[in-house]
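Aim 2 progress update. The chain analyzed this quarter is reproduced below.
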Amino acid sequence: MEIKKKIILRPVGGLCNRLRALDSFFEICKKYNFDLEVLWTTDVTLNSTFDSLFDPISFNDIKVTIINCPDGFPERNLMKIGKSSTGDFAIDLNKNSNPVKNYIKKLITTKNLSLEHRKILAEIKKLGFNAVIRNENLDKVYLQNSSLETNIRVLDQNFIDRITPIISDAVNNSNKLYINCCYRVAELKSNYDYLRPIDSIGNKINSISKNFGENMIGLHVRRTDHVASKAISSNDKFKKVVDAEIENNADVKFYLSTDDPVFKDDFIKAYPNKIITNDVNSYDRNNSLAIQDAVVDLFCLSKTNKIYGSHQSSFSQTAADIGGKKEIIV
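Predicted structure tokens:
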């Protein structure tokens, strides 16, 4: 009997970090004939289940299962996963720690898990040393020869070139893998056309974007904790872009998405009757309503004529990719 191959993926980080990792592994699973099991955790970086944002995903050629999981799963619930001899990509969660404390911790953290989650833990525990790839070590590969000024698409392409042989080796030598990842590890082959927001979110997207025309330009201004975006894509640069577009076309309007409410208010006042925004419930990623608003912003941006985005922002990048639109980094 043919052994069914499977990748267990935990996409990590914010919304678009997770979406680009998902998209990558859809392509990898199609290429190598693996099923994909996605562990979608709710945590402070994205406190929302997958099914409260998107419809179920299905493909003809691979089986995709998305499982909502508690914060920290599965790493928090494992005493230890094997470490490879090189130590490059495997997990060693409790190195040099007390085995008695580990056992007590395991009892506490697993007692409230569902049967489904316990089965997943059992699967991961059985994996070989080289069947585990963790984001911590992917970080090191991604950031090689990078700088604050490097464009995200250049970073992505350099990373894909370096990581492809590692991924290829892993899938060719294991029938089952566990990977946690926030990166695009394969070339973009689609415009996320399999990704459909649930009706309530989709209706809001359509309500906002239904009157978008060729004069609608997207602005994504990333602030808060994103050092590179704030350093390179300054407020003044965005204002200069808007001024230039208005001078070129008096009928132009802008859909503004930002995580900075102060900037948003100031921009609306500076450009009356020119700025369209989503009526955001919250800017806190630990609030599920904020994540739903982020999906609205993402898809509304994708429906604009072109997008002026923030430096090294996966959100700007993903919005442009969804819409197949030109992305201009400010």
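DSSP finds eleven helices and ten strands in the chain. Residues 152-173 form the longest helix (22 residues). These observations will guide the mutagenesis experiments scheduled for the next reporting period.
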